[in-house]
Amino acid sequence: MRHGLFSPRKLVRRFTPGFRDTTAGAARPSHPHRIPAKTGDTLGRIGSLEVRLARNFKEVRKAQRLRYDVFYEEMSAIADASANATRRDADPFDAYCDHLLVVDHASLKRNKLGRLKPEIVGTYRLLRQEIADQHNGFYTAAEYDIQKVIDANPGKRFLELGRSCVLKPYRNKKTVELLWHGIWSYVLRHKIDVLLGCASIEGTNPDALAERLSFLHHNARAPEEWRVRAVADRFVEMNRMPADCVDAKAALRALPPLVKGYLRLGAFIGDGAVVDHQFGTTDVLIIVPVTHLNTRYVNYYGADASRYG
After folding, report:
1. What 3-state DSSP class applies to 114?
2. In angstroms, rounded to a whole number, what is the distance separating the alpha carbons of residues 211 and 201?
3. Model pLDDT for residues 161-217, shown as the tens digit of each residue
4. Which of 121, 142, 180, 301 has the fewest CB atoms inside 10 Å of its own CB, making it the most exposed?
5. What predicted TM-score, i.e. pTM, was given to this entire model?
6. CA–CA separation, 281 and 279 (whole Å)
7. Average pLDDT in the chain
């Protein structure tokens, strides 16, 4: 990643209202060694909103229904027969992933037994390397050749992030902060070293996304030791415009909030994009070594994830 005028973190700071990096020049955090102060399954809370892991498969199914509503009903994903029948976004990975949830205790919904339960309004799917190794590997491996970077870092623990979505009325700072707080707590609890996963840009025409993809390629491409390339038969070139032809401000403004959030963290972008026709998106790989996390993020949520604990 470049650290000059056009580093993505500096661009986010310049062009995103309200973002101020107060720790510029500070040393990066060492590997976290303190576990979250909260020892139960609640990872944080703001008012009526709580972030925690799903406690049972009933809650996983609710998260799958939320994903269906967002991906298929609101966005342009194409449902297969199973998704249409169940009204859930589900795949085999759900059975052994952890599912991070944001639950609103002020919004109660009746279940099939007539009992009032708090509504699940946000979710993120988490897959640790040791769990992936026991099953079918990482979901991301279908799009990116991640095994090379895993093999090159045998002493590090990888965590895959995916299937993130938030119910539309809850797409605000409070909900997003709780999700990130939950992820940070989880990273500390399981001593994670590297975060990775795919982030999506809406649309399946790379030419229409040329400026955004080129911006990421020129300004956030991973250094060689962390570079992961899209699998050969799905590789889409991201370097579609010369760097001096990219309007960095416009490109950054057009990126999805999730991608901009990853850039704020200090994320690197993989080599090549992948078009996902089922979900109507173009995916880019996100990879974040924990030692490269923005110190502002660590300081904000607390070295022991105590901010919302």
Report:
1. coil
2. 12
3. 999 999 999 998 899 899 999 999 999 999 999 999 999 999 999 999 999 999 999
4. 142
5. 0.86
6. 6
7. 88
